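Researcher: Next sequence.
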Amino acid sequence: MNMRINGFSGMDIDSMVKSLMTVKRVPLDKLNQQKQILDWTRDSYRQLNSKIVQLSNKLQQMDLSAATNTQKSTVSGNTTAVRAEANADAASVTMNVEVKTLAKKANLQTETVLTTGTPDAKASLNTTLAQLDKTSSPPAQYELHINDKSLVFKNTDSLSAVISRINSEIPTANANYDEISGKLTITSRENGKVITGTGDGGVVKSSSLSDVLGLKANDAVPGSVTITTSPGVSRDYTTTGDTLLVNGVNLTLLETNVGSPSKVSTQSDPTKAMETIKSFVDTYNELLGLMNTRLSEEKYRDYAPLTAEQKKDMKEDDIKNWEERAKSGLLRNDNILSSAVASMRSVITGNLKVLSEAGITTGQYYEKGKLQIDEVKLKNALDSNPDRILSAFRGPSTDANNPAIFSGLRKELNSTLDMLVKKVGTSKSDTDASMTLKTESSMGQQLKNYNNRISDLDRKMITWETRYYKQFAAMEKAMSQFQSQSSSLSGYFQ
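Model: Next structure:
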C-alpha cells in the first residue's frame, strides 16, 4: 500500500479520496460479489457431484450377484480342510468333500541345503551369491533365464536381493527362501504350467544361477478330490489349483482329509441381500434428500456476499450467519438437479409394484420420494421368492421403460454427471468433495471472465486513486501559492 502524506491546507485528503473511491469501487464490489456467488454455486455442485459418484460406485458393486446373494454354504465335520462360499445360483445340495491330494504348482528348487562353505553353515537371506559359489574363482555375474525373462545378478547380490528381483520382474514366478530348511524355491504363479528355461524372446538358454544354486525342475502335480452327495453318488475331480466349483459352490482346498471328509451344506440366507438393499436405500435417500433440500432452499435476495470493508465492522458470528443466508437457495429450482431427481424417482416408480411386495415404499408425499423399508416384510419376501425381488434390483430387464434399479439408476446418474462435467468441470470418477475443477467448463469460463474484469477494474482503481491524489496535490500547491501571494500583497499596505 502506498504511503500518503496530507497537505498543509487543513483538509483530510485521505478521507476525501477514500470517499471518492468508495463510489468508484461499487462496480468492482458487485463483480466480486458475483464471483463469490459463482464460487459458492460451484462448491454446491461439487458436493453433489461427489455424492452422485459415491452412489454410482456403490450401485456398480451392488449390481454384482455376490452383493445380493441369498445362498450361504457352511462347513461341518472337518472344518479345516475345506472352505466353502456359495454363488447366487448355488444348489441346496449337501456334499461330503474328501481331499485326497492337493495340487502342486511346477517349481524350481535347490536339491541340497544351501551353505556358505561347511555343511552346518546354512545360508541366510544376507548370504551373497559369491559365498554360495563352490568354485575357486566365482564369476562377476550370474544369469537366470525362465519363462521368457532374463535377469543378470552380481556375485555380491544377496539371496534377499535375488528373490526381490525375481518376484518384481518375472510376473509368472514367485521365489522364496526358507532359512530353516536351507532351500530356495521358485514356483510358477500359474496353475498347471511348467517353468520354462527360456529368456528374453523365448530363446532357450542355460542359467548360471541355476548351477550355483543347484536348482532342479519339478513338474506340476494335480490334486484329487472325491465329492459324495447325500444320495450316495460320488464323483472324482482332478484339480490344477486349490479351488473347485461344484453345484454353484466355490470350494477352497486347504489340506488333505482322507477318511475325515468335510460336509458342505447350502441353504437360503437373505442376510447379505438385506444388508445390500438397506445400504442402497440409505445412500439413495441421502442423495435424494440433499438434492431436494438444495432445490427447495429459501433464497434471501437481500443477503449479498459481504465485501472486505463490510466484514471489518462485523463480529465473526454475524459474518457466519449472514453468509449462511447468502449461500442459501443458490441451486433453488436448478434444472440439472430437477432432472436428476425426476429420473431417479422414475426408475423407482417403474419397479414400485415389486418393491412394495418386498416392503419398500416411497412414504408420504412430503418426503419427496424417500424410500422406507419394512424389514420383516423384506426378509419374508427374500425367503419366499428371492429371484423376483432381486430381479427388480439387478435384472435382467429388457424393458427400456422400466430398467432394473441398480443399472437404471447408474445410467441416469451418469447422464447427470455428464451435465455437471460440462457445466461445472467436475469429475465422473472422483469422490472427493474438494476435487479440482476443470477450467474448460462453462462455469470455468465464467470465472475466468470475472477474474479478467476484476483485474481490469483493479488497475483502473489504482489509476483513479493516483489521479485524485495528483489533483488534490495540485490544488494544495495552488492554494499554497495563493496564500503566499496574499501574504506578500498585504505587506505593501502595512
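Model: The chain is about 45% helix and 15% strand. Residues 1-8 have pLDDT under 50 and may be disordered.
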